[in-house]
Amino acid sequence: MAQKPTYEELDQRVKVLEKGMVKREKAEEKLQSLEGKYRLLVENANDATFIAQDGVVKFANHKTEDMMGYSSEELSTIPFNDFIHPDDRDMVLDRYRRRLNGEEVPTAYTFRVITRDGKELWTQPNSVLTAWEGRPAILSFMRDITEKKRIEDQRIQTQKMEFLATFAGGIAHDFNNMLMGIQGHTSLMLLGKTRDHPDYKRLKSIEKGVKSGADLTRQLLRFSRGESHGAKLTDMNELIKTQSRFFGSTRKEISIHEKYAKNLWPAEVDQSQIEQVLLNLYANAWQAMPKGGDLSIATENVTIDEKDTTPFTIKPGRYVKITLADTGVGMDEDTQQKIFDPFFTTKQRERDTGLGLATAYGIIKSHGGSIDVASKKGEGTTFFIYLPASEKQRT
User: Fold this and answer.
1) Counting beta carbons within 10 angstroms of the beta carbon of residue 319, is it exposed (0 to 12), middle (13 to 18) or buried (19 or more)?
2) For burial by CB atoms within 10 Å, which of 118, 232, 301, 360 has the most?
3) pTM above 0.70, yes or no
4) Which residue range forms the structural domain that includes residue 103?
């Protein structure tokens, strides 16, 4: 029969238990403190932080909710592949599956997500394999780099256009010299030949070809020089009204909607060059709406400050903004990146040289302004033109 513990032994056991309970309470307090600190860091992080498991987002911090426009509860019920841009979906899902299987895949890359309101954001996640509730999951820290990418794309576009302008100028000069030689010899051969001479029509055809080549050369030189001649103080509302009404009279299948700002600031422009820009944009809108549609034209006064200038690559100041929006076929992102490049065209080669929008770009830049485009396939295209407002007053 076991001997009963003495009072001293019982007291000693109680003290050991009490000491153990105190250690456990302290450990729990420390753990809770750490959890609180980690939660504070996660919830206040500048990056979207979330756990992906079973094809859904199991945990999301406030930044994720703000970025995507969904609550944590909603995110946990919608397959996360629904948030990925269709063009990036296969790549993202492939890396997700491979990482869950323990394979080595890049931890950082870029892809587009679609928010609740349909907005596309470029994101850069940093993802690692972790465990969530005892099972494998992916922990991601995702940063919105949409504005950063826009600035970088604009910088690349500017550098590319500067190179192309130099290149186009060199081609134009060499080409022009060859044309002058052809024209000179053709003119000599035409001397003394009457209209009924068997070579007359052939020589006149050569002259016509030289003239077409000279027109192309002038476009290249205008693009490369970036010069504006004959600039004068202009009421942009009146200039645009005149061009839009002329265009509307020849394209009855297109409905033109105009909204002009009152007291629009004047701008010093070469009117013939700006007319060429507008006609190029009108023509592009018409070709994007072969069965008819709507063309909306608007003007407004805007002020660009220091923080706004980088995306537009223009100086801070007052600008006249011109917006032209059509309801045509639209463009994909790849096409948008190329439309201002010389010789790029989506039209048949025999119908177009591809210099229309490149020339428009060169003209607007030569005026110290900016031209940009926004478009979606099947949803139309919008061009934005910014021209510096003049400090002079029209008399």
Assistant:
1) buried
2) 360
3) no
4) 48-144
